[in-house]
Amino acid sequence: MPEIIVQLEDVAVFQTENLILNHINLEVKKGDFVYIIGKTGSGKSSFMKTLYGDLPLKQGKGSVVDFNLATLQEKNIPFLRRKLGIVFQDFKLLPDRNINNNLRFVLKATGWTDHEKMNTKIEEVLEKVGMKTKGFKFPHELSGGEQQRVAIARALLNDPELILADEPTGNLDPQTSVEVMKVLQEINQSGRTIIMATHDYALILKYPHKTLKCDGSKIFEVIQKAM
After folding, report:
1. Record's Gene3D superfamilies (predicted)?
2. Is the pLDDT of residue 225 over 70?
3. What number of other Cβ atoms are within 10 A of residue 2's Cβ?
4. Which pLDDT tens digit goes with each residue over 188-210?
5. Over the stretch 125-182, which tens digit does the pLDDT of each residue have?
C-alpha cells in the first residue's frame, strides 16, 4: 500500500473568519501528482496555505507528511516545512546574492553546517533542473523560466516528501511553462508527490493527472473531458 502523504477529512478552510472552502475530503498517496484548479479567488491558494501551515486548520481532521494540522503549533511549523518543498508563482529568490548562495542560505537556515555537503547538494539539485552551469549568476541575470527552475531546485534541497507548487507557471509564457512542467514531471516520475495549483488548462490537457476543482466553496474531482 502506498504511503498516505496528505489526508483531509471534512476540512474547512478559513481566511481569518471567512469560510473559503468547506467539506474537503482528500487522500494523496506517495508518488501522486494532483492539480488544484479554479478561478481566481476560488480558494486554491488558501487551500495550499492550509497544507503548509500558513493558515490554521480550525475545522475537520488533516494530516500532511505525518503532521496533524489541527494540533499544529506555531513553533512546529518550520519542522513541517522542512518536509515540504514549496514553489511560488513569483520565485521569491534573494536578489542580493547569486544562485548558489540563494540555495546555501536555505541549507544554513535549515541546519546544514558542512560546506562540502552543502556544495554537493546545491550542485545535485541544480543539475536536476538543468541549471548546473548557472549557479554563479544573480536572479536578475536569469529569465523567468530559469528563475522558476532555481525555485524548484530550492524546493528539492531537503529531499521533501511533498512538493506544493502554487501557480508555478503563472508568470511564464506558454513555451517556458511547458519547460518548467517537464521538470516537475521528471521530479514526480522519480517518486516525489506533487500538488500543483494552476489555472493553466493547456498544461493540464498536455500532462493529465488527477484534477480537483475549487468552485462554490467546494473541492471536487473533475474528469478531464468535463473541463
Report:
1. P-loop containing nucleotide triphosphate hydrolases
2. no
3. 10
4. 999 999 999 998 889 999 999 99
5. 999 999 999 999 999 999 999 999 999 999 999 999 999 999 999 889 999 999 999 9
Q: Which amino acid is at 26?
A: L
Reduced 3-state DSSP string for the chain = CCCEEEEEEEEEEEECCEEEEEEEEEEEECCCEEEEECCCCCCHHHHHHHHCCCCCCCEEEEEECCEECCCCCHHHHHHHHHCEEEECCCCCCCCCCCHHHHHHHHHHHCCCCCHHHHHHHHHHHHHHCCCHHHCCCCHHHCCHHHHHHHHHHHHHCCCCCEEEEECCCCCCCHHHHHHHHHHHHHHHHCCCEEEEECCCHHHHHHCCCEEEEEECCEEEEECHHHC
Side chain identity, residue 76? N
Residue 60: name the closest of 24, 94, 89 by CA. Answer: 24
C-alpha cell of residue 64: 500532511
Task: Give residue limits of the domains in the chain.
Answer: 4-222
Average pLDDT over residues 65-94: 93
